Each structure stands twice: as C-alpha cells, then as structure tokens.
Amino acid sequence: MAQTSAPTTPPAPVLQGGNMLMLVQNLERSVEFYRDFVGLPQNANATLRPYAPVTAGLADMYIARGAQMRNLTLMVPASDLRLEMLDFKDVDSNPQHPHLQDPGATLIIFKVRDVDAVAARAAQNGVQMRTPGGKPAVLDGGKARAIFAKDPTGFFVEVVQRNESIPANAPAGNVIGASLGITIKDTDETIRFYRDIFGFEFQTGTWVGDKAFTDAAGLAAAQYRKSTATITSTNLQMEFYEYRGIDRTPMKAVIHDPGVAIMRLMVKDINATIKGVRAAGMPVVNWSGEPTIQIAFWFFMGRDPNNFFFQMQQPAQIGQRQ
C-alpha cells in the first residue's frame, strides 16, 4: 500500500475518537444482535431505559424537535470502538437500507477467537446472513475465515477469525478487537477530505478482484480497493472501500434516519474547528449550523463526501462560545 501524509496543521486536528453513534430502528433488537449474536458484553449498568423527550441540544444536533429518544452503549473488547445506539420516535424519518457497495454504507468488523461459534448462533437469533450457506468463508489467501451479516437496522457486520497467534493480553471473551469499514464514492476525494480536514495518514491499496471476499460478502462480481487510516490516539482503524464493476447508489440521509452512522471525534477548540472545516468545504448539518451544548460538551455535526457523519465534540467551559 502507498502512504499519503497529512498536512502539519489541519483545520480539525483530532484528539481522540471511537464512539460510533448508530441510528437504529429498534433498540431492543439491536442490543440483542450485538450481545447475543456477535458476543459483545453488556455492562450491568447499561440498561434499556424508556424514551425521553430530547433536550434542546439533542434536537439541534439531530434535527429532531419534539422527538423522544433512548440510547444504550456497548463496549468492544480490546478496541476503542464503542457502539452507541440511538432510537428516536416522534420524528419523520426515512430508514436507510444501502447495499454494501453503496457509498455511505457502514461495515463493522469484529475480530474473534472462534468464528464458528458466532456462525452457529445465527439461526437461533434470526440473523440475516450475507455469506452463502451461513458458514465461514476462507479469505485473504487462507489467512482468515469470516462471515458477513446485516443487523436489524441494516448495518453490515463482518466477523473474522485470523490464522495468527492471539496476544497474551487479549481479553478472555470471544471478541478481541474491531475496525470500521465505510463504502466510499471516490478514493482520491475521500483521502483528501480526511487528510486535509482531520490530519489522517493513509495507506492506499490498488484495485483487486477478490472473488472470495465479494462472494462471502454477498456481492456480485466486483473489484474494490481498500485504503486505511487510524483515528488519532486510538487503536481504531478505519477501512475505506471503493467498488467498481457493480451498480452503486449513494446514500441520501438526514442525520436522524435509521441506518445513519456518526463517528464522534474530540477536538480542542470547537470554534476554531467549525470555522476551519467550513473553510475546507465540510458541510455542517445540525439544525442551527453552529455549536450546540448538551450536558457538559459543545457539539456540531458534519459529514464527509460519502454521507458518513461526524459529531465534533469539545468539553464545555464557562464563556466558551463567542
């Protein structure tokens, strides 16, 4: 893979990240999928609460005045990825159901000790499998075995077991890591966006015709190229897939639509960040178009060229907004 370096002073230098907010259609079913099928642990304090009216800050961020919302977060062992599932009601929405090759589609990749154990739970949990026959497929020239599935909202999931030694400090459970995949429209455009705005450094791959991968993912014959970058100060790798030789329809979503994914990124100065990203061409998409406060943080919402969203966050300070 070729490497592309970031500018020295991007307009939105990221301090850290990892919380992925997932707009879901049914919170109970989503929690059951990731807990009972994938195998993520659910903290005893992470309980399903009733819907509650959104605050002014949430209404601004999600363009959801008058709505009610509930949420729950599941941690991913050995990963800085956290799945924060949001379930809205009393707001007009358009559930998103992209194909995996469509720009804006999200693929959550879980690394496990035993992929067969996860595949065996598919039928009893009513999981919509993408991999033919529901059995793990051999990938990466025999270096891995994986299954692909869709969660109850329509997010794509890959569960992969690699043929490599497991670190001695890996967690005791089956899930031992994760990465995040995004389907993109154009690699060059996407790299420019993430490099120039966030300062990400990329490894860029070449076009490949990997039939084992596309068959396992339930795709028609297609080529793809994959580029990767790691979110600053985390172990979370983002994987960017561009497909060709197959019909693609970019997602067109409002930020509260089920099926939308949002990555939360922490920044040092929310005012300088919103000014800088606007100048760099990043759309700001929350209702007010300005930072809004929620509990003890300032936030605004933006999106990339593929309709993948970002929630920029800074701890609130007295007199912060000017």
What this model shows, in words?
This protein is of the alpha+beta class. It has one domain: 2,3-Dihydroxybiphenyl 1,2-Dioxygenase, domain 1, CATH 3.10.180.10. The protein has six helices and 18 strands. Strands 1, 6, 7, 8, 9, 10, 11, 12, 13 and 14 form a ten-stranded mixed beta sheet that branches. Strands 3-4-5-2-15-18-17-16 form an eight-stranded mixed beta sheet, sandwiched between helices. A hairpin with a 6-residue loop joins strand 13 and strand 14. The longest helix has 12 residues. The radius of gyration is 19 Å and the shape is globular. The N and C termini lie far apart (44 Å).
CATH class: Alpha Beta
Task: Please name the CATH topology.
Answer: 2,3-Dihydroxybiphenyl 1,2-Dioxygenase, domain 1
Rounded mean pLDDT is 94
Strand content: 25-35%
Radius of gyration (Å)? 19 Å
Instruction: State the shape.
Output: globular
CATH level-four homologous superfamily name: 2,3-Dihydroxybiphenyl 1,2-Dioxygenase, domain 1
The description of the largest β-sheet is:
10 strands, mixed
- The residue ranges in which pLDDT falls below 50 over 5 or more consecutive positions are none
- Kindly, what is the distance between the CA atoms of the first and last residues, rounded to a whole number of angstroms? 44 Å
Count of helical segments?
6
Helix share bin:
10-25%
Helix and strand content put the structural class at alpha+beta
CATH architecture: Roll
| Number of domain modules | 1
Order of helices and strands: EEHEHEEEHEEEEEHEHEEEHEEE
